[in-house]
Amino acid sequence: MEGAQLGRGPTDGTKGTAIDEQQRLQGTTVGSAEDLRAMVSAIALNGLKPVMDKTFPFSEAQEAFRYLASGAHVGKVAIEIA
Predict the structure, then answer these.
(1) Is 66 contained in some domain?
(2) Residue 55: beta bridge partners?
(3) pTM confidence score
(4) Other CB atoms within 10 A of residue 73 CB
């Protein structure tokens, strides 16, 4: 088991800084490879397409992330590469 010391150190992304700033790490779980294959098959079989809200050129990637962070989107936000 780990602990943390009181006090503030340099802001270099270390565990101490994360604790000081009360940041949270949240993991997610995903299904198996078999689940993924079944999902891909169901999507193809039913002709499902993702709902696209907005596409940004790569030169506007920062704006794309700001737009995503705003929560104003309904659907996918994409950044074109090429």
Answers:
(1) yes
(2) 78
(3) 0.49
(4) 15
The count of structural domains within the chain is 1
8-34 pLDDT, tens digit each: 555 555 556 767 777 777 888 888 999
**Tokens standing for 54?**
């907005």
Note whether 32 and 39 are within 8 A (CB). no
Single-letter residue type at 21: E
Domain membership of residue 9 (yes or no) is no
Among residues 79, 20, 27, which one has the least CA distance to residue 54?
79
User: Which is more confident, 15 or 48?
Assistant: 48
Tokens of 25: 């790490």
CB neighbours of residue 64 within 10 Å: 19
